[in-house]
Amino acid sequence: MQDLEHNTAAFLRTIARNPAIKHEVMHSPAIYELLFSAAKRFVTGEKRTDLLVRAHELADLGYRLSAEYIGENTQDAEACREAKDELLQLAQACGTIKRPIGISFDLSHVGLLLNRKLALSHAFELADEAMRQGHGLMISMEEAAKTGAILEVYEQLANERRNVGITLQVHQHRTIEDVTRLLRLPGKIRLVKGAFQESPEVALGRSKELNERYLILAEQCVTAGHEVSFATHDSLLIDELERRGYLRERHAELELLYGVRPELAKQKREEGVAVRLYLTYGKEWFLYLCHRLAEYPPQVHQAVADMLEPERLQAPGY
Ligand SMILES: Cc1cc2nc3c(=O)[nH]c(=O)nc-3n(C[C@H](O)[C@H](O)[C@H](O)COP(=O)(O)OP(=O)(O)OC[C@H]3O[C@@H](n4cnc5c(N)ncnc54)[C@H](O)[C@@H]3O)c2cc1C
């Protein structure tokens, strides 16, 4: 069974990156609709208003929120500007929600692949709008090949804007050094294991060693009194973070992706832990869906059931 799950995960990660398959999904209405009914477990919908409806409901229950307009690797300047404008409107619309929101995005969605200055100026605009609305801006981390460029842009931003945070992938070896430097900046650090397949020279695979490294970096953030988000669904890690008291630190929170382990989010919230949920919307959900299924292959069964019976998704369990 373990081999079967491993192969399923490898297959999903491969098709996630295949442009011909993605094109087929996006341009065949029947396939799009079918797969989208599975994606809806993890993505609030195609439109900003879909995210906002869910965000209001979850904020009323007491959750903190992150909000992302899905997209990455945008190749032309006009599309980068459009993505930035959509994110600006998202930040404005989130102004009505009375819980701290982190507007989350990929720098490659707003220009990183074209020119770093463009990505930086778009990110400044986003940080300023988020600030006006009383919210934060959170930069996601992408494939290891982009880490240097992402951190360079982040460091310039974070030197001037206090409301900008950065996601760090614990699996990348370089993160051990990066975190020491980044802790000197005010921005929140979100610790994730890392979603992308990387070579052993660059990153650790899922392992006990990876979890140990996660806890070492978590300890560094907590000891520094730094704002930190523990973004993981791994019960072994969450239990250990809880045992050490890290989840109860004033500057710390547990962050889960919308649709993944809602019962755990509810339980932790009811126990008094600050829980943040990561909400997404948009049409570029194919890669996002593949990653979620690859991370926990039993969810493939759930995805098939969701395709057959979309009404299953009406009560997500928060
Ligand atoms: C808020 C947030 C933001 C993120 N941002 C980024 C980013 O910017 N860049 C990036 O590369 N990655 C990002 N990720 C993804 C992250 O890197 C991991 O790929 C993802 O969280 C899966 O790793 P994990 O730590 O949850 O545990 P995993 O190693 O995937 O799982 C460990 C164990 O947890 C349990 N488990 C996991 N899922 C389930 C489930 N659905 N039901 C029951 N048990 C389950 C299983 O026992 C599993 O063996 C983000 C994740 C979160 C939560």
Could you explain the architecture of this structure?
Strands 1-2-3-4-5-6-7-8 form an 8-stranded parallel barrel, surrounded by 7 helices. It is α/β, with parallel strands linked by helices and 318 residues long. The chain has helices spanning 2-16, 19-27, 29-39, 48-61, 77-94, 116-132, 147-160, 175-182, 208-223, 235-243, 262-270, 286-295, 299-308, and strands spanning 64-69, 101-105, 136-139, 164-169, 189-192, 228-231, 252-257, 275-281. The protein is globular. The relative contact order is 0.15. The two termini are 30 Å apart. α2 (19-27) crosses α3 (29-39). It has a single domain (43-284), classed as TIM Barrel (Alpha-Beta Barrel). The model has no long low-confidence stretch (mean pLDDT 95). Flavin-adenine dinucleotide binds at residues 140-141, 167, 169, 192-196, 206, 231-235, 255-257, 260-261, 278, 295-296, 299. Flavin-adenine dinucleotide is lined by residues 140-141, 167, 169, 192-196, 206, 231-235, 255-257, 260-261, 278, 295-296, 299.
Give the SSE map.
Blueprint: H1 2-16, H2 19-27, H3 29-39, H4 48-61, E1 64-69, H5 77-94, E2 101-105, H6 116-132, E3 136-139, H7 147-160, E4 164-169, H8 175-182, E5 189-192, H9 208-223, E6 228-231, H10 235-243, E7 252-257, H11 262-270, E8 275-281, H12 286-295, H13 299-308
Parallel strand pairs: 1-2, 1-8, 2-3, 3-4, 4-5, 5-6, 6-7, 7-8
Helix pairs in contact: 1-12, 2-3, 3-13, 5-6, 6-7, 9-10
The protein binds flavin-adenine dinucleotide (FAD).
